Amino acid sequence: MYTERVMDHFQNPRNVGELQNPSGVGTVGNAKCGDIMQMFIKVNDAEVIEDVSFKTFGCGAAIATSSMATEMIKGKTIEEALELTNAAVVEALEGLPPQKIHCSVLAEEAVKAAIEDYRKKKNII
Ligand code: FES
Fold this sequence. Notes:
Layout: H1 4-11, E1 24-29, E2 36-43, E3 49-57, H2 60-73, H3 78-82, H4 86-92, H5 101-121
FE2/S2 (inorganic) cluster binds near residues 33, 59 and 106.
């Protein structure tokens, strides 16, 4: 029921762990299932996301979507990263079962929360 790409990112998740001295950290959770996702970003002076990592305490789909999301925003500007949608992450994973789409929402929210935290720290919102 999962695509090969989902299984790959679930079994070999990219960018796992906690960044040292991150520019922003976003923590989001799904109240229904209790899963939690944390995203760490390091942003340079040109507002480019130089490094990103995640920790997800959750289901396989949440782990695969957070892994894919980190790959999709690495090297992007924060403006570009803000445009990342959960639908784009699902598409990059070549699909998720319908009952697992909500898990991908966490990935979009975690990216946005990390950027919001970065902006708050820099006083730009
Ligand atoms: Fe909770 Fe997937 S079941 S995020």
